[in-house]
Amino acid sequence: MRFSSTIDLVRLKKQAVRTRIRSLQMVHRAKLGHPGGDFSCADILTALYGAVLRVDPSHPRDPQRDRFIMSKGHCSGALYATLAAVGFLTGADLDTYMAPLSRLNGHPDRNKVPGVEANTGPLGHGLPIAVGCAMAAKMSDASWQTFVLVGDGELQEGSNWEAVMAAAQFKLDNLVLIIDRNRIQQGDFTENTICMEPLAERCRSFGWVVHEIDGHDMQALVECFRAAPFTQGKPSCVLAHTIKGKGVSFMENRPEWHHHVPSGDELERAIVELEESLL
Amino acid sequence: MSRMVDCRDAYSKTLEEMASADERIVAVVNDSVGSTKLKGFFAKFPRRSINIGIAEQNMVGVAAGLANGGKIPYVCAAACFLTARAMEQIKIDLGYSQYNVKLVGISSGMAYGELGPTHHSIEDVGWMRIIPNMTVIVPADSIETQAVMRYSAAHEGPIFLRISRVPVPDLLPAGMNFELGKTVCLRKGNDITLMANGVMVCRALQAAEDLQKSGISARVLNMSSVKPIDREAIQDAARTTGGIVTAEEHSIYGGLGGAVAEIVAQTHPAKMRILGVPGVFAPTGSAEFLLEHFGLTAEGIRAAAVQLLESR
Question: Which of B80, B82, B270, B311 might form a disulfide with B238, Cβ 3.0–4.6 angstroms?
Fold first, then answer.
């Protein structure tokens, strides 16, 4: 689908909140999941699917579609809720999240879920695949773009840097790397684990054009994604500064919410806070 | 015996022919344009030639992405680095994701000889065989290599194709068609069955000739298709001959011998001898020296067959 140039910010912001609520309900029901990271990337996913990606749920494998690769596959709750919001899945599908024999595995499976491009979960896989997608488009003189979302802790995997070098070498200006910079990985803050800074400088030094934005500013996200490529002949990186657990006071910036499952009480309180933000 | 041939030439020449006819075919290498014999391909099809540098994980991930974009990538690299270094990408990006990528593992087995165990690839068949959706083929000569290459482009799904650089004679009929999951019986016989693939097939045929001199009639099966494997031919050999000797340039664990034993033990138990590298890292020596060292010779196969028959 093509989007109009005007951005319906109110609609997108509301959708991002609904995605958070829905994904938290899914995690609560499944008693498994990664709500902290679901929340940090909910605005990014909503911007992409709501106003940027040329994808069509009725033709999920259209050769001319834009590619989006969710490298941080553990945040499948947010991904599935987003895919349902735009018609790739139904609300009933979401209720089966991680249930026995459900097609909604804890990590996405492209052969079971329409709209998923790669089976991710082990970290450091999405960016190399995205580089290959972008190369294929160049070889075919095709105009579709490739977007890939990685976590910041994920960038500790060396395979990413192999791909970062290759993307610059092959001048992949049809590739957009989005970094969900929530500063927390499974066990601790990234900077207490393996320091990522200066992350923007590191990416620039590898030949990428980096734009740093507030990863929860819907207008900034959409405008930034639509502006890619930032420079002809160079790959684009959006360093999106985010907050893990964004939108719920007791979840924000707390490493334990990486994969903490909310109790019934926590779920209720979270939904109250999120719904208040809708008003 | 006909002249000895390096199968890499057959694979690269066939890949060039295929690429002329099919624009989707792309070559991906990790700096090894020379040793993968792809200089000709790179010169003829520069837009479809990707040297990703010394980065095997990225190489396999990139290939999955190329397949996503409608290409048919042939990832050509030394078998040792391709399989071991990129194992998780092969498992997840190709096997689990089911991307249509062809892996050509060059200079497999102990072909790198004196370079040592870092460069030997005697675990690759076992590793690849375990991955769901992965097809594993080990051609016997340059004729079968060409046939397998032609087959591979039409096959939907990931394939691991194992190509040695140890020269072998041409054994199979020129212009043959490769049939996945089917053995080719190279010699009829009823006393014992010799099953081999890759560089061991010519040695198994020589062993059968030598056994004939002692009055032993040995069947020789070319087991190039390791996965899927020809269950019928294996069960028939177990049922109608006195035992099975497998021979492969691979560890005795998890390769052809293991695949055959899994079927024999569960269907028609028969005595077996599994010839290969016996779970050790090889000492220093040329490929030919190491094959000899581990008894991966016509004489080694012959002796194992005689010993098996005597033990019954």
Answer: B270
